[in-house]
Specification:
Elements (H helix, E strand, L loop, with lengths): L9 E7 L2 E7 L5 H8 L18 E4 L2 E4 L12 E3 L13 H8 L9 H14 L5 H8 L9 H11 L11
Parallel strand pairs: 1-5
Antiparallel strand pairs: 1-2, 3-4, 3-5
Helix pairs in contact: 2-5
The structure holds FE2/S2 (inorganic) cluster (2 copies).
Amino acid sequence: MRRVNRGRKERIALTLNGRKTAGDAEPRMLLSDFLRHTLGATGTHVGCEHGVCGCCTVTIDGAAVRSCLTLAVQAEGREVRTVESLAGADGKLNKLQAAFQKHHALQCGFCTPGILMSFTDYLARNPKPTEDELREVLSGHICRCTGYAGIMAALKEAAGLGGTDKADQ
Ligand code: FES
Ligand code: FES
C-alpha cells in the first residue's frame, strides 16, 4: 500500500493580488486555508467548507472559484485575487464596492467578500446582464443575514440597471 507522508510540504509560488509571493502547504491543504493562514489574506471568509455558501470565493486567472473546493497546490503559478485586491492603493472603493456601500448591501459582512469576487468575474465577462441573470449568479451565495434586497440593488447599480431591487417596488 502507498504510504502518504502527511508532513510533506510543497512550496507554492503564485501571484496574489498583483504581487508575487510563495508559501509552504501540505498537498491536502485547501486554498482557503492557505490564503488565510499562510499568506494572511483573511478577507477571504470560510463558512460551509463544502462549496455551498460561496463566502470563500476568489478568482484564479480571472475565474471565480470556491477556494474551499480548491487545493492550495492548484494555485501554483496562477494569478489569485481576493477581496483585498478590489479597492485602490489609496483605499478608494471600486464601483462594485461603492454600490454595496451606497445600498447598505451587507449586515454582518461575512458573505460580502465572496459575492464581490463572484461578480467581479461575472460582470467582467457579462457587463450588461439582466436582473434575472444577476439573481441567478447571486443564488450561488448564502447570506445568513438575508440581506438580498440590498445586495440586488447594489448589483443592479453596478451593472447599470438602476439601483432599486424589484422586491422593493
Ligand atoms: S466556505 Fe466555500 S463555499 Fe462555503
Ligand atoms: S451580510 Fe451577514 S451573511 Fe450576508
